[in-house]
Amino acid sequence: MMADRTMHAYCPDCGPMPVSHAVERWNATVDDWSATIFAPLEAIWNLIRPAVAWLKPGRLAPPVFGALAALGFGTIADRPDRTTTDRSRVLWEEAERRGIAMREFRPFGLPRNIFFATKNGDTRVFDGLPRPRLAHEAGLDWMDDKGAIIRTFGRAGIPVPRGGDARTIRQAEAIFASIGGPVIVKPAIGSRSRHTYMHITTLDALRHAFKKAREISRRVVVEEELPGFVFRITLIGGRIGGIMRREPPHVIGDGRRSLRELIAAENENPLRKGPVFHAIEVDLAFVAAQGHSLDTVPAANAMVMLHPKVSRSFGASTTEVEDVHPDNRELFLAIGRIVDDPLIGIDFMIEDMARSWRSSRCGVIECNSLPFIDLHHFPLKGPARNVAGMVWDLVFP
Asked: Which residues are CB-neighbours of 153 under 8 A, at least 6 positions away?
Protein backbone atom coordinates (compact mmCIF):
# COMPACT_ATOMS: atom_id res chain seq x y z
CA MET A 1 0.00 0.00 0.00
CA MET A 2 1.16 3.54 -0.53
CA ALA A 3 3.51 4.77 2.13
CA ASP A 4 3.20 8.55 1.71
CA ARG A 5 0.50 8.97 4.34
CA THR A 6 -0.58 12.57 4.65
CA MET A 7 -0.24 14.48 7.91
CA HIS A 8 -3.72 15.98 7.62
CA ALA A 9 -6.30 15.15 10.27
CA TYR A 10 -8.50 12.16 9.53
CA CYS A 11 -11.63 12.98 7.56
CA PRO A 12 -14.33 10.30 7.20
CA ASP A 13 -15.23 11.64 3.74
CA CYS A 14 -11.62 11.45 2.57
CA GLY A 15 -11.00 8.00 4.02
CA PRO A 16 -7.53 6.79 4.99
CA MET A 17 -5.74 9.29 2.71
CA PRO A 18 -7.09 12.67 3.92
CA VAL A 19 -6.14 15.90 2.19
CA SER A 20 -6.39 19.58 3.01
CA HIS A 21 -9.86 20.61 1.88
CA ALA A 22 -8.73 24.21 1.31
CA VAL A 23 -5.82 23.11 -0.87
CA GLU A 24 -7.97 20.68 -2.87
CA ARG A 25 -10.64 23.31 -3.46
CA TRP A 26 -8.00 25.83 -4.51
CA ASN A 27 -6.46 23.33 -6.94
CA ALA A 28 -9.89 22.56 -8.39
CA THR A 29 -10.57 26.28 -8.81
CA VAL A 30 -7.24 26.78 -10.58
CA ASP A 31 -8.05 23.84 -12.88
CA ASP A 32 -11.37 25.47 -13.74
CA TRP A 33 -9.76 28.73 -14.85
CA SER A 34 -6.36 27.68 -16.15
CA ALA A 35 -7.52 26.18 -19.43
CA THR A 36 -9.02 29.50 -20.54
CA ILE A 37 -6.40 31.81 -19.05
CA PHE A 38 -3.41 29.86 -20.31
CA ALA A 39 -4.82 28.81 -23.70
CA PRO A 40 -2.66 31.35 -25.62
CA LEU A 41 0.48 30.21 -23.76
CA GLU A 42 -0.44 26.59 -24.45
CA ALA A 43 -0.70 27.33 -28.17
CA ILE A 44 2.72 29.03 -28.16
CA TRP A 45 4.24 26.12 -26.22
CA ASN A 46 2.92 23.59 -28.72
CA LEU A 47 4.64 25.55 -31.51
CA ILE A 48 8.04 25.72 -29.84
CA ARG A 49 7.95 22.34 -28.08
CA PRO A 50 9.69 20.43 -30.91
CA ALA A 51 12.61 22.87 -30.82
CA VAL A 52 12.82 22.68 -27.02
CA ALA A 53 12.74 18.87 -27.13
CA TRP A 54 15.55 18.85 -29.73
CA LEU A 55 17.74 20.76 -27.25
CA LYS A 56 17.18 17.96 -24.70
CA PRO A 57 16.76 20.20 -21.65
CA GLY A 58 16.57 17.14 -19.38
CA ARG A 59 20.36 16.95 -19.37
CA LEU A 60 20.33 19.99 -17.07
CA ALA A 61 18.34 18.14 -14.41
CA PRO A 62 21.19 16.30 -12.63
CA PRO A 63 23.36 19.42 -12.08
CA VAL A 64 20.38 21.65 -11.24
CA PHE A 65 18.83 19.27 -8.71
CA GLY A 66 22.30 18.50 -7.37
CA ALA A 67 22.92 22.19 -6.77
CA LEU A 68 19.55 22.63 -5.05
CA ALA A 69 20.33 19.69 -2.77
CA ALA A 70 23.79 21.08 -2.00
CA LEU A 71 22.21 24.42 -1.04
CA GLY A 72 19.86 22.66 1.38
CA PHE A 73 16.63 23.03 -0.60
CA GLY A 74 16.01 19.30 -0.69
CA THR A 75 17.56 15.87 -1.00
CA ILE A 76 18.09 13.38 -3.82
CA ALA A 77 17.10 9.72 -3.40
CA ASP A 78 18.66 7.12 -5.67
CA ARG A 79 16.63 4.21 -4.32
CA PRO A 80 12.99 3.71 -3.30
CA ASP A 81 12.35 3.57 0.43
CA ARG A 82 9.41 3.21 2.84
CA THR A 83 8.07 6.65 1.84
CA THR A 84 7.92 5.77 -1.86
CA THR A 85 4.48 5.22 -3.37
CA ASP A 86 3.69 1.87 -4.94
CA ARG A 87 3.31 3.52 -8.35
CA SER A 88 6.79 5.02 -8.12
CA ARG A 89 8.24 1.84 -6.62
CA VAL A 90 7.24 -0.44 -9.51
CA LEU A 91 8.54 2.15 -11.98
CA TRP A 92 11.80 2.51 -10.06
CA GLU A 93 12.39 -1.23 -9.74
CA GLU A 94 11.71 -1.77 -13.44
CA ALA A 95 14.12 1.07 -14.26
CA GLU A 96 16.84 -0.65 -12.25
CA ARG A 97 16.28 -3.89 -14.15
CA ARG A 98 16.71 -2.02 -17.43
CA GLY A 99 19.80 -0.05 -16.47
CA ILE A 100 17.90 3.23 -16.25
CA ALA A 101 19.27 5.53 -13.54
CA MET A 102 16.17 6.94 -11.83
CA ARG A 103 16.41 9.56 -9.07
CA GLU A 104 13.90 11.55 -7.03
CA PHE A 105 14.38 15.15 -5.93
CA ARG A 106 12.63 15.65 -2.60
CA PRO A 107 12.18 19.36 -1.91
CA PHE A 108 11.59 20.40 1.67
CA GLY A 109 8.04 21.51 2.37
CA LEU A 110 6.74 20.82 -1.14
CA PRO A 111 4.94 17.89 -2.80
CA ARG A 112 7.18 15.12 -4.10
CA ASN A 113 7.08 12.87 -7.17
CA ILE A 114 9.74 14.95 -8.98
CA PHE A 115 11.91 12.44 -10.82
CA PHE A 116 14.65 12.38 -13.41
CA ALA A 117 15.79 9.29 -15.26
CA THR A 118 18.80 8.77 -17.53
CA LYS A 119 19.59 6.11 -20.11
CA ASN A 120 22.38 6.28 -22.67
CA GLY A 121 22.94 9.96 -21.93
CA ASP A 122 19.28 10.89 -22.44
CA THR A 123 17.65 12.37 -19.31
CA ARG A 124 13.91 12.88 -18.79
CA VAL A 125 12.39 14.92 -15.98
CA PHE A 126 8.86 13.99 -14.93
CA ASP A 127 6.19 14.37 -12.28
CA GLY A 128 4.80 10.97 -11.23
CA LEU A 129 5.14 9.10 -14.52
CA PRO A 130 7.43 9.78 -17.50
CA ARG A 131 6.03 10.69 -20.90
CA PRO A 132 7.62 10.24 -24.31
CA ARG A 133 9.23 13.27 -25.87
CA LEU A 134 6.79 15.18 -28.14
CA ALA A 135 3.88 13.01 -27.03
CA HIS A 136 0.37 14.20 -27.85
CA GLU A 137 -1.13 15.61 -24.66
CA ALA A 138 -4.41 17.06 -25.88
CA GLY A 139 -6.39 15.41 -23.10
CA LEU A 140 -4.33 16.66 -20.18
CA ASP A 141 -6.46 19.80 -19.90
CA TRP A 142 -9.71 17.92 -19.33
CA MET A 143 -9.41 14.16 -18.77
CA ASP A 144 -9.32 14.46 -14.96
CA ASP A 145 -12.50 16.56 -14.97
CA LYS A 146 -15.45 14.22 -14.38
CA GLY A 147 -17.95 16.75 -15.71
CA ALA A 148 -15.94 17.19 -18.92
CA ILE A 149 -15.82 13.41 -19.32
CA ILE A 150 -19.64 13.22 -19.41
CA ARG A 151 -19.91 16.08 -21.92
CA THR A 152 -17.03 15.13 -24.23
CA PHE A 153 -17.60 11.39 -24.36
CA GLY A 154 -21.37 11.83 -24.62
CA ARG A 155 -20.94 13.92 -27.77
CA ALA A 156 -18.54 11.31 -29.20
CA GLY A 157 -20.94 8.39 -28.70
CA ILE A 158 -18.92 6.85 -25.85
CA PRO A 159 -21.24 5.40 -23.17
CA VAL A 160 -21.39 7.53 -20.02
CA PRO A 161 -23.86 7.73 -17.14
CA ARG A 162 -26.66 10.25 -17.42
CA GLY A 163 -25.93 13.39 -15.43
CA GLY A 164 -23.66 16.40 -15.36
CA ASP A 165 -21.84 18.84 -13.14
CA ALA A 166 -23.45 21.53 -11.00
CA ARG A 167 -22.23 24.68 -9.30
CA THR A 168 -25.36 25.24 -7.21
CA ILE A 169 -27.67 22.99 -5.28
CA ARG A 170 -30.54 24.04 -7.57
CA GLN A 171 -28.62 22.76 -10.59
CA ALA A 172 -27.83 19.56 -8.72
CA GLU A 173 -31.50 19.08 -7.85
CA ALA A 174 -32.48 19.56 -11.50
CA ILE A 175 -30.01 16.89 -12.64
CA PHE A 176 -31.23 14.56 -9.89
CA ALA A 177 -34.85 15.06 -11.00
CA SER A 178 -33.98 14.36 -14.64
CA ILE A 179 -32.32 11.06 -13.77
CA GLY A 180 -35.14 9.83 -11.57
CA GLY A 181 -33.21 7.13 -9.74
CA PRO A 182 -30.26 6.44 -7.47
CA VAL A 183 -27.36 8.79 -8.18
CA ILE A 184 -23.75 9.23 -7.21
CA VAL A 185 -22.55 12.63 -6.03
CA LYS A 186 -18.84 13.43 -6.24
CA PRO A 187 -16.40 16.33 -6.70
CA ALA A 188 -15.78 17.16 -10.37
CA ILE A 189 -12.06 17.27 -9.60
CA GLY A 190 -10.60 14.75 -7.16
CA SER A 191 -9.39 11.19 -6.72
CA ARG A 192 -9.55 8.15 -4.42
CA SER A 193 -13.35 8.51 -4.07
CA ARG A 194 -12.87 11.37 -1.61
CA HIS A 195 -16.14 13.05 -0.61
CA THR A 196 -18.07 10.71 -2.92
CA TYR A 197 -21.57 9.60 -1.92
CA MET A 198 -23.45 6.68 -3.49
CA HIS A 199 -27.02 5.39 -3.48
CA ILE A 200 -28.54 8.89 -3.22
CA THR A 201 -32.33 8.59 -3.53
CA THR A 202 -33.72 11.60 -1.62
CA LEU A 203 -33.34 15.37 -1.84
CA ASP A 204 -32.10 15.55 1.75
CA ALA A 205 -29.36 13.03 0.98
CA LEU A 206 -28.53 14.89 -2.23
CA ARG A 207 -28.15 18.21 -0.40
CA HIS A 208 -25.90 16.67 2.22
CA ALA A 209 -23.72 14.97 -0.39
CA PHE A 210 -23.53 18.15 -2.48
CA LYS A 211 -22.36 20.15 0.54
CA LYS A 212 -19.67 17.57 1.32
CA ALA A 213 -18.44 17.37 -2.28
CA ARG A 214 -18.26 21.18 -2.47
CA GLU A 215 -15.73 21.14 0.36
CA ILE A 216 -13.04 20.10 -2.12
CA SER A 217 -14.45 21.15 -5.52
CA ARG A 218 -16.43 24.15 -6.77
CA ARG A 219 -18.26 21.91 -9.21
CA VAL A 220 -20.07 18.73 -8.21
CA VAL A 221 -21.01 15.84 -10.49
CA VAL A 222 -24.43 14.22 -10.11
CA GLU A 223 -24.73 11.08 -12.24
CA GLU A 224 -26.86 7.98 -12.44
CA GLU A 225 -25.63 4.98 -10.51
CA LEU A 226 -24.73 2.30 -13.01
CA PRO A 227 -24.86 -1.39 -12.09
CA GLY A 228 -21.84 -3.65 -12.01
CA PHE A 229 -18.17 -3.31 -11.14
CA VAL A 230 -15.66 -0.55 -11.73
CA PHE A 231 -12.98 -1.74 -14.14
CA ARG A 232 -9.69 0.13 -14.44
CA ILE A 233 -8.30 0.08 -17.97
CA THR A 234 -4.79 1.47 -18.30
CA LEU A 235 -3.71 2.66 -21.74
CA ILE A 236 0.00 3.10 -22.42
CA GLY A 237 0.90 4.65 -25.75
CA GLY A 238 -2.47 3.73 -27.24
CA ARG A 239 -2.23 0.09 -26.13
CA ILE A 240 -4.09 -1.68 -23.36
CA GLY A 241 -1.68 -2.35 -20.51
CA GLY A 242 -4.18 -4.07 -18.24
CA ILE A 243 -7.86 -4.39 -17.37
CA MET A 244 -8.52 -4.81 -13.68
CA ARG A 245 -11.83 -5.30 -11.88
CA ARG A 246 -12.12 -3.29 -8.69
CA GLU A 247 -14.37 -5.11 -6.25
CA PRO A 248 -15.97 -3.36 -3.26
CA PRO A 249 -15.40 -5.02 0.12
CA HIS A 250 -17.53 -8.15 -0.09
CA VAL A 251 -17.88 -11.80 0.82
CA ILE A 252 -19.33 -14.75 -1.08
CA GLY A 253 -21.96 -16.81 0.75
CA ASP A 254 -21.73 -20.56 1.23
CA GLY A 255 -25.24 -21.17 2.57
CA ARG A 256 -23.90 -22.12 6.01
CA ARG A 257 -22.02 -19.26 7.64
CA SER A 258 -23.29 -15.84 8.66
CA LEU A 259 -21.90 -12.58 7.32
CA ARG A 260 -20.04 -12.13 10.58
CA GLU A 261 -18.33 -15.50 10.17
CA LEU A 262 -17.59 -14.98 6.46
CA ILE A 263 -16.01 -11.58 7.15
CA ALA A 264 -13.87 -12.98 9.96
CA ALA A 265 -12.68 -15.82 7.71
CA GLU A 266 -11.83 -13.52 4.80
CA ASN A 267 -9.94 -11.15 7.07
CA GLU A 268 -7.67 -14.07 8.00
CA ASN A 269 -6.50 -14.22 4.37
CA PRO A 270 -2.73 -13.58 4.64
CA LEU A 271 -2.87 -11.34 1.56
CA ARG A 272 -5.07 -8.98 3.58
CA LYS A 273 -2.36 -8.37 6.17
CA GLY A 274 -0.78 -5.62 4.03
CA PRO A 275 0.94 -3.87 2.50
CA VAL A 276 -1.32 -4.00 -0.58
CA PHE A 277 -4.63 -5.44 0.63
CA HIS A 278 -6.26 -4.85 4.00
CA ALA A 279 -8.97 -6.23 6.24
CA ILE A 280 -12.57 -5.62 5.23
CA GLU A 281 -14.27 -2.69 6.91
CA VAL A 282 -18.03 -2.99 7.31
CA ASP A 283 -20.53 -0.16 6.81
CA LEU A 284 -23.48 -1.46 8.83
CA ALA A 285 -25.91 1.06 7.33
CA PHE A 286 -24.83 0.03 3.83
CA VAL A 287 -25.35 -3.63 4.71
CA ALA A 288 -28.75 -2.92 6.29
CA ALA A 289 -29.88 -1.03 3.15
CA GLN A 290 -29.46 -4.32 1.28
CA GLY A 291 -31.72 -6.08 3.78
CA HIS A 292 -28.93 -7.81 5.68
CA SER A 293 -27.40 -7.83 9.14
CA LEU A 294 -24.21 -9.45 10.36
CA ASP A 295 -26.30 -12.47 11.36
CA THR A 296 -27.62 -13.00 7.81
CA VAL A 297 -26.64 -16.31 6.21
CA PRO A 298 -26.19 -15.57 2.48
CA ALA A 299 -27.07 -18.24 -0.06
CA ALA A 300 -24.29 -20.21 -1.68
CA ASN A 301 -22.36 -18.10 -4.24
CA ALA A 302 -24.32 -14.96 -3.31
CA MET A 303 -22.12 -11.83 -3.21
CA VAL A 304 -22.87 -9.39 -0.40
CA MET A 305 -21.30 -5.92 -0.55
CA LEU A 306 -20.06 -4.64 2.80
CA HIS A 307 -18.86 -1.09 2.10
CA PRO A 308 -19.58 1.43 -0.70
CA LYS A 309 -15.94 2.59 -1.02
CA VAL A 310 -14.06 0.73 -3.76
CA SER A 311 -10.71 1.24 -2.06
CA ARG A 312 -8.14 -1.31 -0.92
CA SER A 313 -7.83 0.66 2.31
CA PHE A 314 -11.41 -0.32 3.13
CA GLY A 315 -10.89 -3.96 2.20
CA ALA A 316 -11.68 -3.85 -1.51
CA SER A 317 -10.10 -6.46 -3.75
CA THR A 318 -8.91 -6.54 -7.35
CA THR A 319 -8.90 -9.09 -10.15
CA GLU A 320 -6.88 -8.70 -13.35
CA VAL A 321 -9.27 -9.97 -16.03
CA GLU A 322 -8.48 -11.80 -19.25
CA ASP A 323 -11.94 -12.55 -20.65
CA VAL A 324 -12.77 -9.25 -22.38
CA HIS A 325 -15.22 -8.88 -25.26
CA PRO A 326 -13.61 -7.56 -28.48
CA ASP A 327 -16.18 -4.73 -28.64
CA ASN A 328 -14.98 -3.53 -25.26
CA ARG A 329 -11.32 -3.60 -26.24
CA GLU A 330 -12.10 -1.53 -29.33
CA LEU A 331 -14.13 0.91 -27.23
CA PHE A 332 -11.20 1.49 -24.88
CA LEU A 333 -8.83 2.06 -27.80
CA ALA A 334 -11.34 4.55 -29.24
CA ILE A 335 -11.37 6.39 -25.90
CA GLY A 336 -7.58 6.59 -26.11
CA ARG A 337 -7.82 8.19 -29.55
CA ILE A 338 -10.32 10.77 -28.30
CA VAL A 339 -8.28 11.70 -25.23
CA ASP A 340 -5.08 11.65 -27.32
CA ASP A 341 -2.61 11.16 -24.48
CA PRO A 342 0.03 8.45 -23.91
CA LEU A 343 -0.98 7.72 -20.29
CA ILE A 344 -4.65 7.20 -19.49
CA GLY A 345 -6.45 5.42 -16.69
CA ILE A 346 -10.11 4.72 -17.56
CA ASP A 347 -12.70 3.82 -14.94
CA PHE A 348 -15.49 1.94 -16.67
CA MET A 349 -18.61 0.44 -15.07
CA ILE A 350 -20.14 -2.73 -16.49
CA GLU A 351 -21.53 -5.92 -14.98
CA ASP A 352 -19.60 -8.37 -17.15
CA MET A 353 -16.48 -7.44 -19.13
CA ALA A 354 -16.92 -10.56 -21.27
CA ARG A 355 -20.20 -9.10 -22.58
CA SER A 356 -20.27 -6.36 -25.23
CA TRP A 357 -20.86 -2.83 -24.01
CA ARG A 358 -23.40 -2.48 -26.82
CA SER A 359 -25.79 -4.82 -25.00
CA SER A 360 -25.01 -3.62 -21.47
CA ARG A 361 -25.96 -0.73 -19.25
CA CYS A 362 -22.50 0.71 -18.73
CA GLY A 363 -20.31 3.78 -19.08
CA VAL A 364 -17.08 5.66 -18.40
CA ILE A 365 -17.25 7.31 -15.00
CA GLU A 366 -13.85 9.02 -15.02
CA CYS A 367 -10.34 9.14 -16.47
CA ASN A 368 -6.98 9.69 -14.81
CA SER A 369 -3.91 11.36 -16.31
CA LEU A 370 -1.64 9.87 -13.65
CA PRO A 371 -2.88 6.27 -13.41
CA PHE A 372 -1.88 3.96 -10.59
CA ILE A 373 0.02 1.47 -12.74
CA ASP A 374 0.91 -0.54 -9.62
CA LEU A 375 -2.67 -1.85 -9.47
CA HIS A 376 -1.87 -4.18 -12.37
CA HIS A 377 1.35 -5.34 -10.72
CA PHE A 378 -0.37 -6.48 -7.52
CA PRO A 379 -3.85 -7.97 -8.17
CA LEU A 380 -5.44 -10.11 -5.47
CA LYS A 381 -6.48 -12.50 -8.22
CA GLY A 382 -5.44 -12.96 -11.83
CA PRO A 383 -2.12 -12.47 -13.64
CA ALA A 384 0.18 -9.57 -12.81
CA ARG A 385 0.94 -7.16 -15.68
CA ASN A 386 4.26 -5.36 -16.07
CA VAL A 387 2.78 -1.98 -16.97
CA ALA A 388 5.88 -0.19 -15.68
CA GLY A 389 7.82 -2.01 -18.38
CA MET A 390 5.39 -0.69 -21.00
CA VAL A 391 5.94 2.84 -19.72
CA TRP A 392 9.72 2.57 -20.05
CA ASP A 393 9.35 0.98 -23.51
CA LEU A 394 7.41 4.10 -24.48
CA VAL A 395 9.86 6.59 -22.98
CA PHE A 396 13.14 4.88 -23.93
CA PRO A 397 12.18 2.74 -26.94
From this structure: 159, 160, 335, 338, 364
